[in-house]
Design goal:
Length: 115
């Protein structure tokens, strides 16, 4: 009984339309940011390094290099703060998690995804 209630609540929280993207894709995530009483949308673009979970708790990790420093952010797929996900370029990964990109620098990060 309680499992059905939890599934119903989780189903209500999920978004109806989520774009399909895979590990290795270059994507742009539009996120709502609240500063004081104002709210704005900020884009975070990078490479999808991992996808975890399923259902309402599904998350994905996006990595980019900003000012020479690697930055990774974890986004919930069904969070209301994530307004839009755009696939900029499809990648072809041969692994489920691309954590090895943390050790690579420069063009090696892109070359490994385009094989």
């Amino acid at each position: 009984m309680s499992v059905k209630v939890l599934e119903k609540i989780a189903g209500e929280q999920m978004k109806k339309k989520v774009p399909s993207f895979n590990i290795g894709d270059s994507i742009k995530v539009h996120v709502k940011i609240k500063e004081g009483d104002k709210e704005r949308v900020q884009a975070f673009s990078g490479t999808v390094v991992a996808r975890d979970g399923g259902g309402a708790t599904e998350t994905f990790t996006v990595r980019r290099v900003s000012y020479g420093e690697g930055v990774e952010r974890v986004f919930p797929v069904h969070a209301p703060a994530v307004t839009k996900i755009e696939v900029e370029r499809a990648g072809r990964a041969r692994r489920a998690k691309l954590y090895y990109l943390r050790k690579q620098a420069g063009r090696k990060t892109k070359a490994s995804l385009e094989e």
